Amino acid sequence: MVVRADSGISSVDPRDLKGMTYCLPIGYADVAQFEAAFKAGALKRQRVAGIENCLKMLHTHPVDFTWEDSFVLEDMIPGLFPDAASDFKILHPPVDTNPGHLLISKTRVDGHMLAEQFNLAFETLKKAGAIQEIYDRHFAPAP
Question: 72 is in which domain, residue-wise?
Fold first, then answer.
């Protein structure tokens, strides 16, 4: 979850965000706890095309927070706001986790072969311990 650095928001708990407005890009599935709070009237929601537009809304104050993978945010914010990246604050822990997926179009002639190659490479890396090393490096608990 990302907020403006000067917002005073320090929690990702929907109970602490009551009355605030968040941005959810069109096509994104909502986080269960935010969806429930929105349906209960505890949160307001804006829908726009793309996380870039949500970040622009956050920067100009129409919304109080938005969310996206922290690695995506850490890469995207400095590119969109080269002189104002410090205006944003990424909160932890993540509001949700996503196991990640590889999508291959069914219309690709070589799609089945690509999926098999990917799965074989992934299993090879997993058996060698490389996947766990990557996971530990990126998702280890803070010291």
Answer: 2-90
